[in-house]
Design a protein that fits this description.
The complex is a heterodimer of chains A (220) and B (157). Chain A is an alpha+beta fold and 220 residues long. Helices cover 55% and strands 12% of the residues of chain A. Chain A contains 8 helices and 5 strands, in the order αββαβαααααββα. Chain A is globular. Helices cover 80% and strands 3% of the residues of chain B. Classes of the chains: A alpha+beta (220), B mainly alpha (157).
């Protein structure tokens, strides 16, 4: 009986070690897969607004979810430095692709951002969403909150509400999710940096500014 | 209590085992929780708002290494396996809380299990800190229990 217990404990231990090893291998495997598939990303097929000059020689494609903690960390610590040093100087532009997979509110938030885009406030709304991000599906991006964000930004509420309630951009958000997963993105945030000659690099996760700086400089 | 530490960790194999468990768990959780990035450069990054969580990962890893190896010693000594089960439970709770839903593990769970997966990963993400504190609590209780039990079991044997 005692031996049986011993074997059970040993079995559980071995199973845990194997599970951790599989998760870790899978993590690295998926990373490599995403990196390899990122060699020929057809970024032009995405429907997304650009921040910065259209004539910039480098584009950063951010694949993100409005409920993702890592995306908010990047937004809080890295994004503004890139805007100040590269986007405002005309060297780089930035675009955001929704990969709304974390919950129901991710999808609603992404649709709302495009509704704000109808009134030329896509990026203001984008900023508003990340500044107010809370727990996943905790109600921070409920329909009422999304409309209150629109009100704060002085958007035409009737037009915005009609757009959101009618799910005008449902297909676009769904298409973006499919495209993002189709190119091998399996986490948010994922960044694809593409220069004018088509050379691409990927940065996966909420990495600090100095990593972006090095990769951008190598591509400019 | 010091006797227990001396009994276990003066043995070379248990000392090494505890270090191996602690380091493996720390690196695995740090990579999953995005404190360490391997590509495109090896980078270590902790922001102010994630510093507390990082500290919990560090404490959890050290405690798990100590408690699990002490309990393996205890199993060999007294053939009691329940204590290992409890210490592993504490470790698993702490490790699961670190499965960031934005990451590939969360993504796989959500795409495989749909809404149920989404609810599970949201729970693990939203309650990451309380879950880690619970797991540290379990490991501390296990540590105290084990430290008290080892000298007594040594006398019997």
């Amino acid at each position: 009986m005692k031996n049986g217990k011993k074997y059970t404990v040993a079995g559980v231990g071995v199973a845990i070690v194997i599970a951790i090893a599989i998760s870790f291998t899978s993590y690295l495997g998926q990373f490599e897969q995403a990196e390899n598939q990122g060699d020929n990303v057809p970024t032009s097929t995405f429907q997304a607004p650009f921040l910065g000059s259209q004539s910039a020689t480098l584009t950063i494609v951010e694949i993100g979810d409005y409920q993702c903690e890592g995306c908010k960390e990047w937004f809080d610590h890295t994004r503004q430095k890139i805007i100040d040093n590269y986007i405002d100087t005309g060297k780089v532009n930035l675009t955001f692709i929704d990969m709304a997979f974390l919950g129901v509110d991710s999808f609603n938030a992404a649709m709302a951002s495009y509704c704000a885009g109808d009134q030329e406030k896509y990026w203001d709304y984008h900023v508003m969403l990340y500044e107010h991000q809370e727990g996943i599906d905790s109600g921070w991006a409920s329909n009422e909150r999304l409309k209150s964000f629109a009100f704060t930004l002085d958007l035409d509420i009737d037009e915005f509400s009609h757009c959101l309630d009618s799910k005008k951009y449902y297909n676009q958000v769904k298409l973006n999710l499919e495209k993002a997963t189709g190119i091998g993105a399996d986490r948010t945030p994922t960044f694809i940096l593409v220069n004018a000659s088509g050379e691409q690099r990927q940065i996966i996760g909420s990495q600090p500014y100095n990593v972006f700086e090095k990769v951008i400089e190598s591509l400019l | 209590m010091q006797t227990s530490f001396r009994l276990v960790f003066t043995k070379y194999e248990y000392f090494i085992l505890s270090i191996v468990i602690s380091i493996s768990l720390f690196f695995t959780l740090s990579i999953i929780s995005e404190y360490i990035f391997l590509e495109p450069y090896l980078v270590f990054s902790v922001y102010t708002e994630t510093a507390f969580n990082f500290l919990l990962v560090l404490i959890l890893s050290i405690l798990a290494g100590i408690v699990v190896s002490m309990n393996i010693f205890r199993v060999k000594l007294a053939k009691k396996s329940k204590s290992v089960g409890a210490s592993l439970t504490g470790t698993i709770i702490g490790a699961s809380a670190g499965v960031c839903s934005c990451g590939p593990i969360g993504f796989s769970v959500i795409t495989t299990f749909g809404t149920a997966g989404s609810i599970a990963t949201a729970f693990l993400t939203n309650y990451e800190i309380p879950l880690r504190l619970i797991s540290i609590g379990i490991l501390i209780i296990m540590l105290i229990t084990t430290m008290r039990a080892i000298p007594a079991e040594c006398k019997i044997n």
